Structures are given as structure tokens and as C-alpha cells.
Request: fold
Amino acid sequence: MNLFDDDRPKKQPPHEIGCDLSLLSADELSARIILLTEEIERLDAERARKSASRSAAESIFR
Reply:
């Protein structure tokens, strides 16, 4: 660990669930919607891959 690491500003996460939205502009809200929509699509794709793997495994052991 570097001695100067503590002096760096902490990066805020792109979006924290439940955070106060009243201070964000319409453009910032739109950017977060895009970010979260992309994350939902990524989660859905991973869930579909896992479901397919599970279905394939179940069909082998039937």
C-alpha cells in the first residue's frame, strides 16, 4: 500500500441503489438509466446462460 493512497478522493460508484436522486440533473438521470439498463441486460444474459447450463445438466442425469 502506498503512503499517498489515503489522500486520493474515493471514487463514487456510478449508481448506488436507494441514493438520493433529487440532486441529479435530467441528463445525469438519463445516463444512470442507460447504465442500469445495460446492467440488467448483462444480468439477464448471465441468468439465461446459467439456466441453460442447469437444463443441460438435468437432461443428462434424467
About this structure: The chain has a mean pLDDT of 84. The first helix runs from residue 26 to 60. The helical segments are 26-60.
